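Example A, followed by Example B.
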Amino acid sequence: MTHDPNSEPNVRHRAVAGAPGGATPPSTAVEPGPIAILPTPDAVVADAVRRGGGTLAPLSPETRGIVWVAASGADELAAVLDAHPAVSWVQLPWAGVDAFSGVLQTVRDDGRVWTSAKGAYAQPVAEHALTLALALMRVLPRRIRATSWQADEVGRSLYGARVVIVGAGGIALELLRLLRPFDVDATIVRRQHTAVPGAARTLPSTRLGEALDGAAVVFVAAALTHASHRLIGRAELARLAPGAILVNVARGALVDTEALLEALESGRLGGAGLDVTDPEPLPDGHALWSAPDCIITPHVADTDEMTAPLFAERVAVNVRAFLADGDFVGRIDPSVGY
């Protein structure tokens, strides 16, 4: 699951005051009414809707809000919306919404408000990303497998390292906070030009190569869109410092898997920490499983136990916005895909 990559995580967007990314705002305010939880009931989310003051009811012509609790089912959701044009607000369950990109493109001009969980899961994901980076810098993949004492004195410190974070959403901001005690030299790469507080510099995505020059650690925390597919490839990996570390906690397809394998096997890249892969799930026997200094975790940077209460809080906040002033959190801009 990912996460809000290129926009501020907890900035609230009013339904009638303009959409993120410069999108055209809806012509009218969101019309409140009954809320349906789809495609299946969810007791935790139902409680959150009630805490927000909402009225729960089965899907009907009177439904005005939908909380979608499945990570997939884009076609089913599209069919629901086609059959219920009065729905004015849709809440999606994860920060990354690439699984619903087709629906978002179809409805981009229909005036509905779409919200996601972007920013809600930033803390556990950033924590996981930092764990992977530190483990790789201290050569833990090899140390853990060792069966004899090897006093080779291999390992590096994160203190003062040149770090690049690709993305500027909740994960990136939380990473900057976690990295502060290490006194790193941090560069943020984002779609927008707006500077990110806490980073030494902020560069637009058009200057990604420049940002990567000589970097020791790269965290990938961006949204997967058509424009960002395989954002990190051979040319980008070649610009990193020899022995650099790459950590991806966003989407596997942001990184060219073949290029990553080549860089690991040649020793040019010092290690990779992957909570996401391309393909995913990663098949048994895939070369990444045996690649040197590669840690793979099965998309568990934020587990259900961690995310359930965080998503519930997001739902409660947005139900209150839906019923009152339209002060939604995590609003999606369908035109850019997150």
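Example B, a separate protein, is given below in the same form.
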Amino acid sequence: MTKKQLNESVEYLKKKGFDTPEIGIVLGTGLGQLVEEIENSIEAHYNHIPYFPLATVEFHSGKLIYGTIGDKTVVVMQGRFHLYEGYDFLDITYPIRVMHQLGIKKLFVSNAAGAINLDYKKGDIMLIEDHINLQGGSPLAFKNVAEFGDRFVDMSEPYDLNMRNKIEAIAKKEGITLQKGVYASVVGPQLETKAEYRMLKILGADAVGMSTVPEVIVANHLRLPIMAVSVLTDECDPDNLLPVNIAEIIEIAGKTEPKMIKLFKELMKEI
């Protein structure tokens, strides 16, 4: 990755009309309905943006969408990138750097995850307070990282406390159950074994997924405040573990998403 590549990506988007968005949003697996809320939208497919990776997961459509939600200008990633697709950490986080260079001041991230904390149920939304990186690498571990920011990035509070407090208050006001917890990010794409679920619980994870952490690390590198939620799509009880049903996971994500959209839209009004 070079600054020249980033500049070319950004210039392409600016020419298409992506003009100083305020908020960047990353949509997780099965969580695409938010794009229906975008007004005056402009789309850029990933395969047309210089140096952008291509989305390969079937439930990710692979485009950046610019427009307005309420009185805020947004740029939305419909389709993200994962280690399990064969991308490296620089590919996965390249869009975050592009959105930052376009001008975003805040980043919202969503994902679909499994509930390790058995007090949490499928269909719940969990506000991520902290994370455990089990992906075996870092998006900051490259030679010329110092050209883009500090090499050693503080991660004592990776998720913005102000936005977390606001979204908790919004959930309470709207009567939406909002759990809070620690998200563990693994490589995938295989789901976890019973022993692995037990390990994750011992480590202190409340939910597990295959994304988000690389983007959060880069957002912190860019000093970009971030708020992230997991839509809990399955319950990972090692003592009563059933074979995974991907179709059911996507269905639960779709049913829960309207509550997530409500939280996101209300938070936008307050920041």
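On Example B: The radius of gyration is 18 Å.
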